Amino acid sequence: xxxxxxxxxxxxxxxxxxxxxxxxxxxxxxxxxxxxxxxxxxxxxxxxxxxxxxxxxxxxxxxxxxxxxxxxxxxxxxxxxxxxxxxxxxxxxxxxxxxxxxxxxxxxxxxxxxxxxxxxxxxxxxxxxxxxxxxxxxxxxxxxxxxxxxxxxxxxxxxxxxxxxxxxxxxxxxxxxxxxxxxxxxxxxxxxxxxxxxxxxxxxxxxxxxxxxxxxx
Length: 217
Prior knowledge:
By secondary structure, the protein is mostly helical. The protein has one domain (21-201): RNA polymerase sigma factor, region 2, helix turn helix motif (Rna Polymerase Sigma Factor, Chain: A, Orthogonal Bundle), CATH 1.10.1740. Helices cover 60% and strands 0% of the residues.
């Protein structure tokens, strides 16, 4: 499926070596070169994930920086029960949760968001897509942080339900319920908003998350 299920954004590859033990050990020992290597490897994905949940750039850079500060402080607690990238994503999402709960996040999409959109569409099509994204995030801003994050990870960042559950620390059924409820609200609002409806229509060819929670595992 296309990662947004709405607008074809470019996914950031989530690849990593099978064994990160040596890199982690070097980072814990204070090896600056190893720390830079880990930061460079994980930065683009973490930035994209935070950006796609919040939908604006005002706070993204600060949250990404805070994520990596927390990562390096907590590396000694990494036990390898999940992929390192997943563990880092959990830290990033916890930071986003805190931000959404304690601050009034803006609802606007930065103008450079259009750079994430694939394809060579006309200027008017790009402008309409940008307007649709603004309207989408205005709807997401009214959801709970949990529902907004689950929906954004799934519908915008292209994660599976299982990945959403793992990253957010919830069960699969809880993740699916949050996604479905958020999607229902987005589609309810789109019924009265042709621009938002057009954005959603781009992703309707995919059966992604069309089932209600509990219908499939």
